[in-house]
Sequence to fold (852 residues):
Amino acid sequence: MRIPLSWLREFAQVPAGSTAEDVMAELVKVGFEEEEVHRPTDALRGPVVVGQVLSLVKEPQTNGKTINWCQVRIVPEGTEQTLTGEGVDPSGVQGIICGAHNFVEGDKVVVTLPGAVLPGDFHISARKTYGHLSAGMIASVRELGIGEDHDGILVLSRIGLDPEIGSDALELLGLYDQAAEINVTPDRGYAFSIRGAAREYAHATGTSFTDPASRVNPPESLSGGYGVKLNDDAPIYGKPGSDRFVARTVRGVDATRPTPPWMSSRLRLAGIRSISLPVDISNYVMVELGQPNHCYDLDRLSGDIVVRRAKAGEKITTLDGKERPLDVEDLLITDDSGAIGIAGVMGGAHTEVSDSTTNILVEAAHFDEVSIARSRRRHKLPSEASKRFERGVDWHIAHVAAQRVVDLLAELAGGTADESGTDVGTAPDPVTIALPAGFAAERIGIDFTEGQIVTSLEDLGAVVEKIEESGSGISYTVTAPSWRSDLETKEDLSEEIARLVGYDNIPATLPVAPPGRGLSRTQQQRRRLVQALADAGLTEVLAYPFVSRAANDTFGVAESGAPRPAVKLANPISEEQGFLRTSVLPGLIEVAKRNHSRGFRDLALFEAGLVFLPGDVVGTASIPPLGVKPSDEVLDGLYDGVPHQPLHIAAVLTGHDSPAAASHTPRAWDWADALDIARLAGDVLGVEIVVSQGSHQAFHPGRAARLSLRSGDVVGFAGELHPKLLAAHDMPPRSIALEFNADALFEAAADVIVAQPISGFPVATQDVALVVPQDIPADDVLAALRDGAGELLEDVALFDVYAGKGIEEGKKSLAFGLRFRAQDRTLTADEASSARENAVAVAFERFGAVQR
Fold:
């Protein structure tokens, strides 16, 4: 909403020196947002004066053009010229070249003199042209930036002006005025008017406000006017499309009269271009009072006006000259000839006011907000009228607005108003709201006094009645003003009280966090794990969670052909990616493939993301109704249909672990690196991950490991990806990958990781080589040694595997290093040897292991 300051000052006490910025600063206090300042003099600067053409000599040119060599007086006769500079004649008569031909000798015009600057940063200076020194320019409305007409210069007498020669043309045309533009939220449509803006300015500054409606004197009642029928027998949106229609008649109008400069200037600053006097008057009243209205050419109407819904197949040609097919939900203004307007949106071309119009029917109606909004969107026809109607217009202002239009048509267009008129419709019931005295304080956090509550609400225009009930305390019955259709509940009133008392009075108090708040245990674990992987040199990426069915079948289950339920998307981006992922690896491999195709060969990528594992029930057959809180049973049913979504972490490694450099040969990633990453994850969380020979259809048959917890639960797989899969995805051979269920690790992790004390006594080392059958996993033998060695064992590690000469066929030799240490003494060789023998005994008992 653009608010011209000269207009605002008529109804609010705006200090004389206030700028648009000052006005916006005040309106911000009551909840409006600043948008922009509109100040014509930012682009148009003087000297720009009123001049009179003394002589005009037409001079044909060789290029076929005829120019006018004019002598223009720019100061009153007998007055000295005060301007100086090149081309300025001390006599006050300037020689000016002009190419327009719509003026004659004696006309008063707008003259821009040397030193002036016009919109577009066009500087005026004296210059030699067509054989003359032209010292200035006779301006058109387009050159002044106040209109689009460029067919001729602005002749002041034709817009009803006879100013003194030499007077300031910028002041004459209202160009020193400025406008403050604010953003009006959809619930405050009343502020789309000078009436509403002035009221809000008075709220913000604590000054008085003059309602522009109080300056209009409409008849107490209207009858005998033009026939109007409200015929919306089947309301579509819960209430009739129109519940009030006021019609007034003005005869003998001269529609060709010019719009006064003060009116066109204000409309222009308000963002509305001047069209013709009747249309400008209609727009002026709309901006002033917030009530859209329309002028019909009375002589083009036939029969009574009927407000009704459109019929199937009906059409209308609107004011923009376009024929539009109508929908049966469109609310129309019609007469015997058919549709003459889309109610509240745009009028029809058939009854448009033109220069030949002499008799006008003025309409000021009230329409349903939803109906207007739907029609505006349906026809893509935004208009100043629809913008106000769809946000709510004061029902009680229609007859005032109609009278204001009538008065201006009589004053400016020479019309005569009929005493009779039409006012049909039924007033809505006033909105009454019960407000407990302490409710606003509880909701806002300020102890409002009774005076603040009552004064704030009465300033809004509400009627407040205080009620004292024994045992219940004090409350108020508040009747909302008719122009505030957004006030419906006690919460709305509380917000208005806070707004008018001042948002700056609301204390800024930070709530005290209850003990134990902050990151949850799982959030802490996730951050620690992701950070550890990043610190280890891996790069975190995010891939799409949408995959193909084949990808879920390959990566989601270890064995080929095993069923893997998946969630199918109802509206996928691509049919090829029509399912939610059950494994993170497919998307991660696509990221690696894309990087590899762009020349990035050495990659170490990881992703922490959810996978979607549906259970026996997916979704629900019944959706709870809106506006009602579902019961616990209904919510349980909804949650039962939500797929399980554990957090998985996956990694893909290709190429080498470091860039090549002088005296450095990079090492290619191998399956052992995948195991190291898995072990790192376990170490960070304090969870022991058991690595054993595994099998997964997406991994190499002999280079895949199963990742398990000590409980035996499998949490993931790691190793080298299957050669056929790599070839199919155009990935480098020997690419490495792993994926594990991070949520399972979080659940198995201890609440607190306790660091073991470091002994100050020396370590005792013992090595042992055990011969076991080929099919016995080394990790199982290592576990047996750990169990048998007892509490003195600090660490045990496999350092060699051998099969061949000297080893019986079908068997292998596993060499382990055992490290023993005591916390309170130096171990003897006998103690270390005894612990080693105990460990070997357990390995023999479990696997028949014998020392080599």
The mean pLDDT is 91.
